[in-house]
Design a protein that fits this description.
It is a single chain. Helix content is 10%, strand content 57%. By secondary structure, it is mainly beta. It has a 56-stranded mixed β-sheet that branches. Strands 57-58-59-60-61-62 form a six-stranded antiparallel β-sheet. β19 and β20 form a beta hairpin. The chain is elongated, with a radius of gyration of 56 Å.
Amino acid sequence: MRRAFAYLLLAIAVMSGAAQAQDNDRGYIAGLLEDALGGEGRVVRIEGFSGALRSTARIERVTIADPAGVWLTIEDAELTWQRSALLRGAIEIESLRATRIVLPRLPNPVPGSAPTAAAPGFSLPELPVSVNVGDLGADRIEIGAPVLGEDVALQLRASAKLADGALDATLDARRLGGKAGQVALLLQFVQAGEALTLDLEVSEGVGGIAAQRLGLPGVPSVDLSAQGRGPLSDFSAIFDLRTDGAPRLEGAFRLSEPEEQPGARAFAADVTGDVTALFAPQYRAFFGPDVSLVAQGARDADGAIDLTEFVLAAQAVNLRGRAALNADAWPLRFDVTGSLGCEDGAPVLLPLAGPETTLQSAQFDLRHDGAASDIWEGRLQFEAFARDAQRIDSGSVTLDGTIAVAEGQASAIGADLALKVRGLDTGDADVNAALGSAVDGRARIDYTTGTPLRLSDVSLNGASYALAGDVAIDGLDSAFAAEFDVGLQSTNLTGFSGISGQTLSGAADVTLRGTADVGGAFDVDLAGRGTDLRVGIEAVDTLLSGQAEVALSARRDAVGLTLREARFMTDRARANAQGTLTDAVGDLRFDADLTNASDLAPQINGPVALRGALKRQGAQWSVDAQGEGPYSSRFSAAGEIAPTLSFAYEFDLPNLAALVPEFPGPVALEGTLRDEGGALLTKTAAQGPGGASAQVTGKVTPDLSLQINGAAPLGLANPFLQPRSILGGLAFDLTQVGTDLTGLSGQVRVTDAVFVAPEAGLRLESIRGSVDLARGRAQVAMQGAPERGGLVSVRGPVVLSGGNSADLNIALTGVRLEDPQLYRTLLDGQISVRGPLTGGAQIAGRIDVDESLITLASPSVGSFGAIPEIRHQGETRAIRATRQRAGLIRSDAATSGGSAAYPLDVTISAPARIFVRGRGLDAELGGALRLSGTTAAPISSGAINLIRGRFDILAKRFSLSRGEITLLGDFDPFLNFAAESRTDTGTASVILEGRASDPTVRFESSPSLPQEEVLAQLIFGRDLSSLSAFQALQLANAVATLAGRKGVSLLGRLREGFALDDIDVTTDDAGNANLRVGKYLTDNIYTDVTVGDGDDAGVALNIDLTPNVTVRGATTQGSGTSVGVFFEKDY
């Protein structure tokens, strides 16, 4: 408001000066006014100016704005004045009125317009003319809430006269809008004699502006009056403040000029009252019902101040003292004492802003008498301080020093400071752990006029730390430059874990030396040493173990930053940097070494070295870095990093087998990373072992969106499939949007692949197909051909998340499976897999079995015995891996059955032509089986039963009476066969049962006989005791053949000893014994000779002309000579 009317008065002066202009030259005069009233940060606009040469001038609108907008508007202003008064150098205004004045806010301060530190004193402004305003008024003044806290409307009437060094002003302002409020002011001052008259009356009703701005409880009515009269050499004034009509404060103020000190000004103030109603109820215990302030003193003409008495008394505070300062504000003497607290010792709430602050008690005193001594001292003690969650049980500060004041010379002050805090609780457990509950500090403080402020021998000690050093501060009123040499020691960093957010431990010792100022310039040297440092991160802790050192030496000035050295070193790592940096250019070089990468990644061994440069050219920052890593790897990155990111990178590893032994071959990455419109884009190409390759392009941030395509040999998976293997090619063309699998789409293709599972005798060829990915699902379409014929196909969807729920259909068409040692079969069928593949998916369907053959191994008489378990000594890793792949090592984990179980509902239909042959057995079976339960515990129901069959033992044939095949969860079925025959002594049975890979044979009879007797009856029709030696030997060999016993028989040993290919002992119907031996004379000529008493004695010769045509000739004792040509074909 005061500024607005000042600008209005100035406008009047400018208007009078422009009276020489033509009355109708509105642009010229308005321009003069705008230029005169405007200035830095202030723009004035005048609209509708008229009547400059008449007795009445009008302005339609005046606005004043700063960079934030218009802050003052005056509308319909009218000026009535005496133009002839200008001839005698005066401005006499009969009336100056405005219809409306709007002040929505106060103007923003002009930068750099801070007031000077020195007080200019009081005097009236010197104007080139006298100003007399008879009637000054505004019908409506609107003041915005930012000014007074709420929107206010006023009506104003005023008058003012300023002439011949005298001021005479009156003001009457009344609030509009129904709320009571009035300000009445009479102010007169005569420069000659410095006579001042003041009469002020302020009155507001309940809820007024003053009560709201002061925050008075209940927002009461406010009445303030002040009156004073007299020359400033003998001026007296009184004031009275009331709320809701009750007296609150009253007092008197007096100015005088002591006779003994011409030019000095004495002052005295005496204020008393009950201010409890002016503060919130919780603060009333602090002030109490009786507050008094008494002050007396004088100010010399040269500016020296002597405060002879000062007393502030309230219920919880008592402060009294005296002091004297010379013209330079240096203390000549002081004696101040004070206390704070209630008589009953209860904590008192202090009237401070922010969180509630309480204090039980405090006492302080400051003393110095320069006339008697240069010694000064200060004491502060307090108990039970609390602010919000912060607590201090007790504390003290002591100051002991000297003050030397010399007129016209440098003055000096110094003191020894001691600080003691006990029971410290900051309200933050982490900070408490760092600082401890007890803190002690000391320092020496010295200051001499014209020299820096020095703090020497500074020390601050806690439970596990100590801070010590020296600091000198210069330019207290300007640059605030500091020179320092400080150090921090901690014997145990554990207490600092909380505030650092890491689990710290170890000891540290850091020193910092140098200079700095508030302008940002510095020149520092930092050195630190740590012992057994830990931060709670295993890899970093490994690097920091033992001794660690850090050093920094840098300077920053008006030119820029010079990094002389930045070094970090431990027993396992080292880093270093140096360079210069200005606003225009920069060159920072760095290098780092890691003794062994295993300190960060245990699976990687070898040193790491990094070197490079960070450069600046104007606003552009760029990096160029290279490095070498374990296993002869190399990496590099170069390009721009600011203001936009755009750099290229490369990585090369000569042999991936160093990291993944199963994947031998080189790896190479090459790509770019750049920022485009806030998006981080990448383009990367990768080459891997076996010709694998991939290209990745797209956006990394803020939303992931990548195109991924490439190819890889399927053989890369073989190390994880052993003893199974796969060969072929795989190609992929994928898109990933977002980080969720639902954003993965595209296709994976397999062409001409071959899969081999030797343990199952399975080989799939010509595997081809695709996996289409979209919306978190994979649509599988694959097929392959078994080695011996047929087709296997797999189709259906698989969900990529959760338990990988699937709906797969597996079709078998003419699939031939064979284990040369065990079975041969032809299969057709449909199998479905529905449900989560991670466990629980149901396997259901039907398999139709066509002609199949189960072969029982028939070891010859010369077969080898079982190989005993071999214990490998000094087995290498490679040899063990080979045996593992061959399935020769079975671990407990492999047989524990810990994998997921899958429900089964599979029907196996084999109505006929299931043949079982070998060891004298020749049988045909048929039937159906249903597999239920789970893959971990399958349940088989139904059976494959005997259709027809026989046992052949030593040219004797026995028809089967029972036969059955049962599946027990693998391709090795369980067999159960029996043949019965009548003998001279009753009935005899041959029973074969067990798994096809190792069945057992036993002989039973009725009545019961030993197995060898049963066999003798079956074969020779006589008891064992009546057999000849050769018949007994032949019988034993027959048992070995049926039972498949391992080991070498007697005849086998004879065959080996005489280097024969066959040897056998036979008998004819008459019981005559014959010995038959056989030998291959060449690859295609075989002969055997039979020697004995029977008709079978003779010589036989076989000549294989082709694989299917054989010529046979023989001569025997009973049959004579014979020759024949035979055509044979196996089927």
